[in-house]
Amino acid sequence: MIPADIPADAGVRCVDHVAVAVRDVGAAAALFGIALGGRFLFGGDNDHQGIRIAQFALPGGMKIELISPLRDDAPVARFLERRGEGVHHLTLLVEDVEVAVARLTGLDYEVVDVDLGSRYWREAFVRPRSAFGTLLQLADTTKRWDEPAASGITLDDVLAGRVVFTEDERAVLREG
């Protein structure tokens, strides 16, 4: 019996994307973009997390996010060192990440790295040891992430390190 104070469900809306940890986004982009027909959506550097990402929509709508470390202390660098390249996490969009966290923690799943600081992208993670070997990212967002960035930023810009994510989750060309 589930206690009454636990939300009825986690409010999952959809699978947003599968993130793949890679050493070289450009090499992986050749597979997911060119060979498999993926359409580049957006990408850039998250200097805070020390990662570079590029996201692609595959035919049929499935999205793949390629993530690679920009520095040795980035969590993705540790992941690559321990496990090698491969699936890093599965992102589920939820109606309200706080409700999802309450549901999962109330049912004794281990939720970590809850970040509610941005109104544009709020997230939490369910540890792999609590999710059958899968790192789950739960997120709610006020933005559309399934359309190409309107800024004219290209994959070449991302691969050259010319793009950075701002505090409001926009990918913009670096100044200078």
UniProtKB/TrEMBL annotation:
Q: Which Pfam families match?
A: Glyoxalase_4 (PF13669)
The residue ranges of the VOC domain are: 14-141
Task: Kindly state which keywords UniProt assigns to this record, in alphabetical order.
Answer: Metal-binding
Q: What is this protein called?
A: VOC family protein
| Matches recorded under PANTHER family | METHYLMALONYL-COA EPIMERASE, METHYLMALONYL-COA EPIMERASE, MITOCHONDRIAL
**Known PROSITE patterns for this protein?**
VOC
Q: Which domain of life is it from?
A: Bacteria
Q: Which InterPro entries would you find in this protein's record?
A: Glyas_Bleomycin-R_OHBP_Dase (IPR029068), MMCE/EMCE_epimerase (IPR051785), VOC_core (IPR037523)
